[in-house]
Amino acid sequence: MATVSLHEEIEPIKEMVPFAVINAENLPELRAGRLGELPELSDVVERTDHVVDEANGVVVRVHRSAGAEGDLPCVYSIHGGGYILGSYEMDDAKFDRWCPEYGIVGVSVEYRLAPETPYPGPLEDCYAGLRWTYDNAAEIGIDRNKIGITGVSAGGGLCAALALLARDRGEVPLQFQLLDCPMIDDRQITPSSQLDELLVWSRESNAFGWQCYLGDLYGSDDVPYTAAPSRAEDLSGLPDAYVCIGGADGFRDEDITYAMRLYGAGVPTELHVYPGAPHGVALFAHLQVAQRYSADQEDWLRRQLERLG
Q1: Do the beta carbons of residue 233 and residue 261 sit within 8 Å?
Q2: How far is CA 54 from the centre of its chain?
Q3: To the nearest whole number, what is the mean pLDDT of the chain?
Q4: Number of H helices, E strands in the chain
Q5: Distance, CA of 62 to chain centre
Q6: Rg of the chain over CA atoms, in angstroms?
Q7: How many whole angstroms separate alpha carbon 266 and alpha carbon 285?
Q8: Catalytic residue positions?
């Protein structure tokens, strides 16, 4: 049995970390728990919801600093949750801080979840929200030439896929993609994907998430690259990328490989690997490793915004 080596700050508290294997039996209960309590928000940022696809119930939430003027850069965000959990509310606290700090408009999308809605539904929801954001840029105070995307875990996988889809369709120009521990390889054949006792997101949960998202495609050779971006053969023409991953995350190897392939395809790419950090390390906000993880992301975001001017 191959087990994971944890960071010295994580090892003493690992018993406090939920280690539930997610399956069809406990998924409804976990959804009802809303992935923990949501933090209290300030009144510095105004939040408005917009229906972008009535037929499928797709909604985006626009976050904008109160009193902000002019057309601002946009960060379009996709929440995590293994393709089966989560809500756009998970992005509220991030944009409560990012909007005033970096002078941006945040847009978060409420996409449909698997298994009720398997691929390509969730990705098309994300694209519908992005296309709405681009088409309505003037009304919501966004510079349509300064749109970047971000996502964490499954949201990172959808973010990577959205970058590929936007490139292929040629309708919405993207300036950057910030991929936070993205879930991008359904094959689960890397050494890190086979590790036992992974914190937060186990290999069993990972297999269940992919089974739900891919449906009948799971386990076949016919999985499209917009479902599992690691399968993409051509990564050229994609926007600047940032990939961050913990060394004790089951996604470690697929994410490192994807970053290397982006770089090889001519995409300016920055890769950060944090030894011993588990999946979702940013959740442990009081730890130095988590603070460094988040600070490095934000430093790259700041530099991207400076580049766009």
Answers
A1: no
A2: 24
A3: 95
A4: 8, 8
A5: 17
A6: 18
A7: 34
A8: 153, 249, 279
d(C-alpha 149, C-alpha 130), whole Å: 9
pLDDT of residue 159: 98
The b/e string for 64-80 (b: 16+ C-beta within 10 A; e otherwise) is bbeeeeeebbbbbbbbb
Strand ranges, E, within 5-91: 45-53, 58-65, 72-78
SS3 state of residue 122: helix
Which strand (E) or helix (H) includes residue 98? helix 92-102
| Residue closest to 151 by CA, chosen among 78, 232, 71 | 78
Task: Write down the residue that tokens 């599992």 correspond to.
Answer: 228
For residue 64, CA distances in Å to 195, 203, 292 come to 41, 38, 26
Percent over 90 (pLDDT), the chain? 89
Distance CA 292, CA 230 (A): 27
Tokens, residue 52: 């972008």
Which residue would you say has higher pLDDT here, 225 or 37?
225
Bridge pairing between strands 72-78 and 105-110: parallel
Query: Which among 136, 133, 157, 161 has a CA at the least distance from the CA of 147?
Result: 133
**Four-point Cα dihedral 273, 278, 282, 283, nearest 10:** 180
Report the C-alpha gap between 179 and 259 in whole angstroms: 10
